[in-house]
C-alpha cells in the first residue's frame, strides 16, 4: 500500500471522526475510565470545560483568566494569549521534577499506580520509567531539537507538551514533524511513521495539535527562548518550526478535547505551572489564529 493511499484513508477516518465529534467527545481512555477533577483553582470555579458557542455568554472563568483575549482574533488574539499564559506561568520545573509531575498529570484514572502513555495508549506503572526499551520516558511533543532549546527550565520542561511515552516508541518518533501516513509503529497501535513524519493514534491527534499550538503561542522569542512557529512543512530539522500546520488543524477539529485532556490542563494550572493551554479551553481559537 502506498503512503498516499494510507494518507487518503487517514483523511477519510478523520472526516468521519469530525462528524462523530459533534455528538460526543472522543475519549482517549478505556470506556470505563472517568477522570477525577483536580481541586479547583479560585479563578477556575466556573470553568465549564466546553468551548463557548459563537455569541454565547462567556463563563466567569473567561471574565478572569481570558478576559484580555475575549473578542479578539488573528494576531491580536495570539499576542493576547501569549501575554496571559506567559505572565501566569509562575511555576516552572526542572527537568528532574518533570518525572513526578507526569505521574500526576497523566495518571490513569482506573489505576492510580499507573500513567497513560501518549502514543501507545498503554497504562503502565508510574515506577517503570527510565532508559530501558519498555520503560517510559519524557516525550517532548514539540521536539526539543526544533529550536535547540534543550532541557533547562523553560520550553524543555513545560508540562503542557511533555508526556509519558514508551522508550522505543519515543525513539521511533524521534524529532519528526507530524503528518499523515507511513508504516505502523510497533507498540503504538494506530500510529504510523516514515522517514520524515509521525502520525499518532486517532484518540490523541487533537491533543498533539493543541500541545504544538500552545508552544507556538507561549514561546514567542521575547524571553530568551526561540520563537517557535508551526509551518506546513515536514523535515524542518533544527529550525524552530514544526509541521504540518494544515494537518494539525484538521486533527484538532476531528479530535476535540476530552475529559482526560481537560483534567490534565487543570492539574497543570492548579498544582504546577499555574497557566493553561488556551486551545484545550477554547479549541475554536485554533482557526481564529491560524
Keywords:
290 residues, alpha+beta, four-stranded mixed sheet, three-stranded antiparallel sheet, 9 helices, 11 strands, 12% strand, disordered N terminus, TAT_signal, hydrolase, nuclease
Describe the structure.
It comes from Streptomyces catenulae. Residues 146-201 are annotated as: Disordered. InterPro entries: Endonuclease-I, His-Me_finger_sf, TAT_signal. It is a single chain. The protein is α+β, with helices and mostly antiparallel strands and 290 residues long. It has helices spanning 3-21, 74-87, 95-105, 167-173, 205-218, 245-254, 259-272, 278-281, 285-289, and strands spanning 107-108, 111-116, 123-125, 136-140, 162-166, 177-178, 183-184, 192-193, 197-199, 229-230, 241-242. The strands form four sheets. A four-stranded mixed beta sheet has the order 6-9-8-7, with no helix packed on it. The chain has a three-stranded antiparallel beta sheet with strand order 1-2-3. A hairpin with a 7-residue loop joins strand 7 and strand 8 (192-193). Helix 1 (3-21) packs parallel to helix 6 and helix 5 (205-218) packs across helix 6. The longest helix has 19 residues, at 3-21.
Amino acid at each position: 500500500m502506498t503512503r498516499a493511499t494510507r494518507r487518503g484513508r487517514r483523511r477519510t477516518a478523520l472526516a468521519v471522526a469530525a462528524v462523530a465529534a459533534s455528538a460526543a467527545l472522543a475519549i482517549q481512555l478505556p470506556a470505563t475510565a472517568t477522570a477525577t477533577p483536580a481541586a479547583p483553582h479560585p479563578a477556575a470555579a466556573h470553568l465549564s470545560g466546553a468551548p463557548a458557542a459563537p455569541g454565547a455568554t462567556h463563563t466567569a472563568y473567561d471574565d478572569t483568566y481570558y478576559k484580555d483575549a475575549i473578542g479578539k482574533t488573528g494576531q491580536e488574539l495570539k499576542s493576547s494569549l501569549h501575554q496571559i499564559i506567559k505572565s501566569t506561568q509562575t511555576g516552572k520545573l526542572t527537568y528532574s521534577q518533570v518525572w513526578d509531575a507526569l505521574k500526576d498529570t497523566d495518571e490513569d484514572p482506573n489505576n492510580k499506580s499507573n500513567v497513560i502513555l501518549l502514543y501507545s495508549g498503554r497504562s503502565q506503572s508510574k515506577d517503570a520509567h527510565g532508559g530501558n526499551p519498555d520503560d517510559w520516558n519524557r516525550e517532548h511533543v514539540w521536539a526539543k531539537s526544533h529550536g535547540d532549546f534543550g532541557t533547562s527550565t523553560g520550553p524543555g520542561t513545560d508540562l503542557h507538551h511533555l508526556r509519558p511515552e514508551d522508550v522505543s516508541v519515543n525513539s521511533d518518533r524521534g524529532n519528526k514533524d507530524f503528518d499523515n501516513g507511513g508504516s505502523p509503529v510497533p507498540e503504538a497501535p494506530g500510529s504510523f511513521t516514515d522517514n520524515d513524519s509521525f502520525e499518532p493514534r486517532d484518540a490523541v491527534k487533537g491533543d498533539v495539535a493543541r500541545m504544538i499550538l500552545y508552544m507556538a503561542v507561549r514561546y514567542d522569542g521575547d524571553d530568551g527562548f526561540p520563537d517557535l512557529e508551526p509551518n506546513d512543512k515536514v523535515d524542518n530539522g533544527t529550525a524552530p518550526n514544526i509541521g504540518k500546520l494544515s494537518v494539525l488543524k484538521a486533527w484538532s477539529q476531528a479530535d476535540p478535547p476530552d475529559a482526560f485532556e481537560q483534567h490534565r490542563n487543570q492539574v497543570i494550572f492548579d498544582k504546577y505551572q499555574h497557566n493553561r493551554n488556551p486551545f484545550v479551553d477554547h479549541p475554536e481559537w485554533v482557526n481564529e489564529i491560524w
